[in-house]
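# nightly structure sweep
# worker-07 picked up a monomer target from the shared queue
# config: single-sequence mode, recycle default, output format = structure tokens
# input follows
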Amino acid sequence: MLLDLRKGEPERLGGRMLVVAGTELLAGSQQVLQDVLSSRLVRSVLVVAVGPDLRLPPALDGEGRRVLWVGDPCGILWNADTGEAAHGPGVSSETILIDLLSQPEVFDEVVDELGDIPYGTASPGWRIVAGRIDPEVLAQAFHEVAERFDGPVQPDTAAFSSPLADALPMLSGTVDLPADLLDALVPEGRTERLYRRAAEQIDRATRALDDLGYFHGAPVLAAIADEVVAAGRALAEFREAVARLFAEIDHTDEAAADRLAEYGVKFATPAGMGHREIVGELRTDVESALAERKSLTRLVSRLRLLADHSAPIGSAAFVDDLWRICPDELLNALHAPAPFPAGLIDRFVLWRRSRAWWREQLALGHARTALDELRSRLERVAASEWMLGEARMHTSDAARTLAASLGEICVRVAGTLNDWSKAEAGQAAAAAALDEEVTVRLRDRGGQLREVITGDLLDAVTGWLEPGWTSLEHGDYRDAQAGLERRVDETLRQYRYHLVHKGVQERPGFGPGDGPGDGRGDGAASGGRQELVDAVWRQSQQVVRALEVPPSGQMLQLCGDRDLAALLRQAYAVRFAPRAVRGQGNPPGVVWTRSGQYAGTLRLVPLRPGTVEENWSGDGT
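# output follows
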């Protein structure tokens, strides 16, 4: 917890307290410091005193004293070995020091080192390499990533045909329905009997025609005609029964199951087509696309296409197909059979040709084809619109809800990134008090930076969608988007803080993997991040020099030239670097931090005895 006494008293306390105050104000802060030091919530306190003439209240007396004295925040270049000094950069380094000490790992190490320093008081100095991304580079990266999230929706015709998916390919029509699902008629049921009777009647008329001999009388021809008429009636009855079913049955109707059972048509959702299985396959597909860094706009397009293809259209839409399969002209030909040729030549001389002509006119072959196609259409409609109707409806609604959620995410992420881009543009680069080599190196890595940020945000999408999957399984489509806006905004706020204080080389908490910043791979994002770390940090000679610099060598000491007389010619060192930089060749004793902003050596120079004045009046006088 950072407590700046120049801005007021603490609102809350934490285990680590970093207290910042001007030297004059600090001298009169006995009561506030006493409250902080005596609190059971506080484990360790580090005080940063800024200004000349260091005076401490009694609360900071004793072995528990841990004080850093910043005589001049602009600092001076000083070699503790030779005593040589030169002007510093002329800009205040107070913000950098506070930022550095706010890192828990550095805070703890400094507190421990001060425990070995006489009177627990020292003057800080450093040689630090800055790892902050150049604001202009970061602004451009934010802008380009925003365009990815808010670009035009790109068409995606990819089929849902994952080897692990069973339901989605069938429900979206990308694979044929299985034979067992197409067996929709109940044996000996009403519709199956109508079909069988029509088939038997057509077959009977066909056999009678086949048995027509050279010598035949009028009664034989009349009997054949009667069989044809009976076949036409049976075919018409089957067509009308199917048309009635198509027109009357709706899979969302509670009475649909009873109605279909009455007609002898199966009505049961096949195994593997429940809400849980469908949403499970959707989740696998979406998360795989995110892990593979697929375009979010293409994924939105793909989900909308799935919603369109899987939505049932209702059996009534297929009624007209029945009249195309079995037209009235065919039934008319069966109801009023054409007469056998009556001429003597046609009947006796050209008998074979006459029988073939009559067979064509009676259209029995067309009747059998129409009957089988009517049954096939009935079975397909029964499977797709009735048995799979509920599953298809759920798939369509779930896919459309997911597409809407991802669309909202795209808009919010793009808007936020554009705001960040505007805020970064025109900001100052790394402070002159720091070595900028890493910052300069990052300027040439804008493409990699963009890929890492894109990957981080796509990882975040997985977490944003997580609470909605259960709602989709239950069909609560509105609840699936509940709280999405809040989750997105909160994660983006955390990510912004992460980029500012930890940098891109540290994996954010919402990313996949074994733990943040552990250096191990986490897919495509980790590959880009690791490559960036290797190219920018691990190949930096300035980082190596900053970590290996002797503590008594030349550094920026945060004091004025007159303050040098108060310092001893000895120094303690706290060496630190981002955890992502860990590897071969690092000096021993480096403190590995979660932050990705700084790497180098913090020097602690003890003060000469008698330098620190203790103010016992309590009022600063």
